[in-house]
Amino acid sequence: MRGPHNILRLIRTGATLVRTGAMTVVLDAFHAPRSLRIAAWLLGAPFAWLGIKGDPSLPPATRAITALGPAYIKFGQVLSTRPDVVGDDLARQLRVLQDKLPPFPTDVAKKTVEAELEAPVDEFFSEFGPPIAAASIAQVHPARLAASGEKVAVKVLRPRIERAFRKDIDAFYLAARMVELLAPGARRLRPMDVIAHFEGVVLGELDLRLETSAAAEFKANTQTDPGFRVPSVFWFLSSRRVMTLEWVEGLPLGEVTEIADAGHDRAALGERVLRLFLSHALRDGYFHADMHQGNLKVGPSGDILAMDFGIMGRIDAYTRRVYAEILFGFIRKNYRRVAEVHFEAGYVPADRDIDEFARALRSVAEPIFGMDASRISMGRLLNYLFEVTERFGMETRTELILLQRTMVVVEGVARTLNPSINIWEVSRPIVEDYIKENVGPKALLRDLAETARVVGRFGPKLPQLAEDALIGRGVHGPPPPRRGVHPVLWMAAGAGLAGAGFVLGQFF
Question: Annotated catalytic residue: which of 55, 290, 351, 355?
Fold first, then answer.
């Protein structure tokens, strides 16, 4: 039964896109080929009367998405981080999809809290107010702790939201398969992977224990960052469908006039938000991936306050080094090195010409570096970089796209606060410090020390492993003859590494 239901959902989606005037906008944003355009119109136009009218005051794309409901709104928010998929103009429109749904009743929220915390609301909260924000998945209520009177924010999932999302995600997968079938050129964008990424984001947000954990981890990582604060979580008042956080007061970073009137240095705030993002991404490999103005506030003391930890990004140490070297190469205008990093990381097929790739990188970067500070744009550079890497056969990498897209959003926040900010000059010290610590001899010694520690943990097993290798015990029959280094020598090398790990571990 799932197949027919998914087809009906797609028909409703197509009909709504047609009725709201969004069909052409969406197809143009995806550069849809003729075959896909015909299929989309056949799916929607004959059934336009089934489409939802939506709010006529909104632009066509956001009008259609908000009309289709929570799953589509969240999908639009996630796609706003993927300009490589939907294009710049549509990505910009989709970024406004915040808090667009009407709230559900406070009484329903209280019942959810009581069911999750297994006690009456009054036992935990002396006050529990009406919602102050209602988004696609949850809404937030102001409350006060019964024990201390402290003001807190209580986030509560929408009723039956899990079931609604799972149904729509199934339909999204069907749509992605149709796109791959009818538009082979779109396979480079990996639409199935985009939906899988969306599913992972949503499933994480549908379990508020995971968001609570993300907030706690992010706070621990950034505890000593000057001028930045993450609200504390209340674990004993959080569960799968309820999350309780410390209440924080502040002005959204988009309210530039109010920020200036409050006496805050807008230029300093713009530089700080950019440096903080780069520090979190490169230093910790764990960053807030939804850093728009609504999720960032400036407190009375001037601290930047972060909120909403449903979308977080994580990148491993190797990818962080690759990303830093790419940024560092552009900052230094060393396009050959930027090209080499792409090839070394396997981002560009090895059979392509590295010199030609370096020349292409120069052609997109030099015009941007020639602009005055107010026009130098990380977003423009990354968009051009997408075009170049596509031409050279680089496949879309979701982890880098999320990182790069977040940086573009952060750049937008910084420019709102300080239109003349020089993105490269602000970024340079953070990237250079990371390169000094993580690329070169010092980093190599640290990597060797870590490798030695790992091998060293197997130290007690090395004698037994050596004996097994020599006499073939534990193997079905004698071990086959092997070329290369004798197993005993491998054991000896392991023992040496274990010793080295102990020595190096004293210094790193």
Answer: 290
